[in-house]
Amino acid sequence: MSQTPVVRLEATGPIAEVILDRPDKLNAMAPSFFDQIRQAFERVDQEDTIRVAILRAEGRHFTAGLDLKAAANNVLSPDADAATSPVTANTRLYRLIRDWQNSISAAERCRKPVIAAVHGYCIGGGVDLTTACDIRLCTADATFSIHETKLAMVADIGTLQRITAIVGKGMAREMAFTGKQITAEHAERCGLVNAVYVDQNSLLAGARAMAEEIAANSPLAVQGTKQVLQYSEEHTIDEGLDHVAHWNASFLHSQDLVEAMTAYMEKRPPVFQGR
């Protein structure tokens, strides 16, 4: 049986938009969401014509987080068979969590930069998803909440592993321990978002303008920069320096570099082909 689409992918030239498309349910993340979001970012990663992606949502809110009602059978009672041992049931739940983690991490694994454009509520799983993105922008009415502690759960699909590097240790713990809503102003102040826009229209205009600016650069250089940044975040400075030396030794002599130098000499904008 085919799944009802809850994630939509639209591509115009080098810019793709990954769109949460379940507005009647506040884009709550049902089990089918996870396969679809992974597939969307894998397609962005694989299609050479795409250079950057925007993650956005339809409707009044970005996402209300995990659809608890739809996920109840998987999460709260993962195996209804009374003959199944607790160990088997727990193992299946572990595998489910790891599968969902893998789907959320698809945005981070994607070689292309991902800009999250958030409006309204960004709750629970929404924070998991947006912290896996490279850049976050939001509207003035946006709020962010690591809501799981208010539901007697530990956030388990990415937020706790990424949030500290983004907002710092104290703020990460405040958000995670209290589960309270963080306003757009506060989110910008602590570095959770890069910029705040008046409304959704200006947010999308800003995200698209940023995407166009990124897409105008050499895709080899942009994708290499993302990979080197990610590597360096998990290694020592010297290991990061050695890694980027190997990277440039392999990729520096590209046709894009020749085009950059030629365009500079001819006083014109470069046109990069990713070769």
List keywords for this structure.
three-stranded mixed beta sheet, 12 helices, 275 residues, 2-enoyl-CoA Hydratase, Chain A, domain 1, 2 domains, Lyase 2-enoyl-coa Hydratase, Chain  A, domain 2, alpha/beta
- Top-tier CATH class of the largest domain: Alpha Beta
Number of domains: 2
Spatial separation of the terminal alpha carbons: 41 Å
CA radius of gyration? 20 Å
Low-pLDDT segments: none
Strand portion:
5-15%
Specify the helix fraction band. 40-55%
Q: Which class do the helix and strand fractions yield?
A: alpha/beta
Topology order in helix (H) and strand (E) letters = EEHEHHHEEHEEHHEHEHHHH
CATH architecture of the largest domain: Alpha-Beta Complex
Helical region count?
A: 12
**How do the strands of the widest beta sheet line up side by side?**
1-2-3-4-6-9
Number of strands: 9
Mean pLDDT: 92
CATH topology (level 3) name of the largest domain:
2-enoyl-CoA Hydratase, Chain A, domain 1
Task: Indicate the overall shape.
Answer: globular
